[in-house]
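Notes from the pairing session

We agreed to fold both candidates in a single pass and log them together. This is the raw record for the first candidate, unedited. Please don't reformat it; downstream parsing expects exactly this layout.

Candidate A
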Amino acid sequence: MNKQRALDTEVGGNHYRNLPIQPIEFITKNNIPHIEACVIKYVCRHKYKNGVEDINKAIHYLELLKELTYNENE
């Protein structure tokens, strides 16, 4: 049986598959923690999926990172 690889399948569009390196590959190979991974994901896809909404999501995750890691609030 010739099963399709999970990396070749994308639910909800093709905003990651069109990139030379998919964010999940980069994130996994570099053992990037969850919050940082979310930032990478949203920054990589903003042009192809949700525009400024994805940028705002990335900013939100960076604010969470500052608050939870460095105990900084703005």
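Candidate B (folded immediately after A)
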Amino acid sequence: MITEVPFPVMSREPDAEGVVGTWFVNHGEQVAAGQVIAEVQVDKISLDVEAPVAGTMYQYVAENAPIKQGAPMARIDT
């Protein structure tokens, strides 16, 4: 089963974009549910993102590449 990990909505602006500042898990690595997988940033706000499920991590976006809030930033195959 595939679980998509959305970029968190951190701004009230509907078209606001953010970036993944740092990935803490590499593409293809195993993750545990609740494990911090990335730090994301919108404007001057940063937030840690946790894996919602355990499985194999696949990244959709590179560090510092713009991404819309709510868009999938990764997937986890269980």
